[in-house]
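JOB MANIFEST
job_type = single_chain_structure
chain_count = 1
residues = 385
[input]
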Amino acid sequence: MRLLYLHYGPQSGVTAAVSRALAAAGVDVVQANPTEDFLWRLRAGSRLPNLRPAALRAFAEAVRRHGRGWKEYWIHTPWAFDRVSRAAGEAIAFARADAVLQAGVLFGPGAPPQQPYHLYVDQTRALAERHAPVPGLVRPLPPDPAWRAREEQVYRGAAAIFSMSAYAARSLVHDYGVDAARIHVVGAGPNVTPGAAAVPEPPGPPAILFVGRCFAPKGGPDLVEAFRRIRRIHPQAALWIVSQEAPRPLPEGAVFHGSLDPPALSVLFARASVFALPTLREAFGLAFLEAMAFGLPVVATSIGAIPEIVADGETGILVPPRDPAALATACAALLGDPTRARRLGEAGRARVAEQFGWDRAAARMLEVLRGADAEPGARGETRAG
């Protein structure tokens, strides 16, 4: 099978992971990114403004619709949707693939689509619009009837939709009227896993690990506040922050590691005692799968699809968002009870091995793409509801 994978960039490693898993299953994967060079050009590792007329129009539309949030939402305009969709249609015509798999719905597969297409989604815009406003974060996407109409048309026209979570699948049914029989919950997998680069946990002070590219949306400020309380109970505890940014000054015991590549990150996963990510906005949460794959107990917020990943009381502890006190209590409890922490961590490791993984997600997709699975719900697949 020759498959065209339409995507919009690395997607935190999802693009490469899906492509590898499908290729390992014998699929000839061809990639195309219709958004490439749309607003920015990459030159020698730098992002330079693209001064072509289409890019300037995209910039103007983004400013008009999203104001100060234009940079985060520049592609979330109906004009950009239509423009990128035309590029996607051209890629489909050029590839002459047996099947088309599209990541997300930032664009459509051409107008009209030239062949049946399939979608792989982590969330929907309707879910993003319902995000609670948080001081210091970019405002949630505003409702846009013109965008919603385009998005709904793409969802309803797909031959099948693969969802990372039941949470997103429910939105497809209830917000967009998609037939649940065409939705297949296939999950996702960790991109950092234990291997030769991982160092066994040495004896020493306990450490809480935070991994989030964007510090504030991932709840970093709440964790720093919680850590100050944790240090009163566990004076030797450390907080390891892996992120693009971190506030200054950090409390004593907190260490900012910056952004790390997978081998370096795997060392911290192997050495940490607890993984804490009190995220405020999350489409899915690959970092939780990574932490659980290393046998770490997880402390997370009870939002979005996270309860599907972290079983409260079984593989970790879920707390309300924006609650440093509850966060501190949960982390301190695990640091103070290593036996319980190990039990939760081992349960998390088993949960990832049994329910998640890119090979498993790809296999579920291929059952549908190859026509081997005619009925949703068969062969261990979860139906939307």
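[summary]
Confidence is low (pLDDT under 50) at residues 372-385.
The two ends are 31 Å apart (CA to CA).
exit_status = 0
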